[in-house]
């Protein structure tokens, strides 16, 4: 449904995107990840027909995103990274304007979305907080039930409750067969929704991964607390795959094979057990310089 072929944009300063190639199949959710300034928004602006490629093509549903920009923009639900609103109007008027441009008659879906995101659409846009503007942007992107959604950092500015709601909405869209490209710094949101992820750095697509494969390869760490340091020493030398060790605690990495682990643990004085899952962020970290990592579970920038 989305096809990017040899896409290139060279800005005067030598930055840009270079020979990008990827596809998003109908009904697939593609997570587009990358550190600050990697080229995510530039790619997305090409997909929306706002930028002319220096080389190559971006296509959506067979349409050329630059040549057929007007048609593409009608077809796609788009949430920009930074929304430029008209200042003199309120949220409802802004949505009316977009609905008019798209020839959308029914307000049913829009009202349902406003109800879910819980905001007063009559508030003047200049008085809205960042999060509230983001909600208006999301309603604008989803309200015409588009076959393709392109979302540039959709949860920025949303509080955790609204982020959760957004993920639910995205999963519903996925269920309906909507094709979705979502750029994000939030690994967890990508992990819960995406089928595949592409990682862009310095304008180059450096990796593509199938999220379901990654999840199947995901390891768990069983953290065992032992009655004494001597017991912990003994367990550390038992031949199990020891991932880490802190005092009386020994972390053991497992991937599907639990029988041997529990048989072995039977011979030890254990006072506690905890299970930790290595999340995809940890698996992805090797694609980034450590310096790019802002820390925490939230981002990769
Ligand atoms: N119009 C422009 N002229 C010159 N350079 C530009 C222009 N637009 C973007 N760039 C540069 O191209 C690079 C990619 O920018 P882009 O906004 O696509 O990154 P991004 O991955 O979306 O980053 P962020 O996470 O910060 O939004 C950056 O170095 C940026 O400074």
UniProtKB/TrEMBL annotation:
Entry keywords, A to Z: ATP-binding, Nucleotide-binding, Transport
All copies of domain ABC transporter, residue ranges: 2-227
Transmembrane segments: none
Domain of life where this protein originates: Bacteria
SMART domains recorded: AAA
InterPro entries: AAA+_ATPase, ABC_transporter-like_ATP-bd, ABC_transporter-like_CS, ABC_transporter_ATP-binding, P-loop_NTPase
This protein's record includes keyword Transmembrane helix: no
GO molecular function terms listed in the Swiss-Prot or TrEMBL record: ATP binding
CDD domains assigned to the protein according to its UniProt record, in alphabetical order: ABC_DR_subfamily_A
Name of the protein: ABC transporter ATP-binding protein
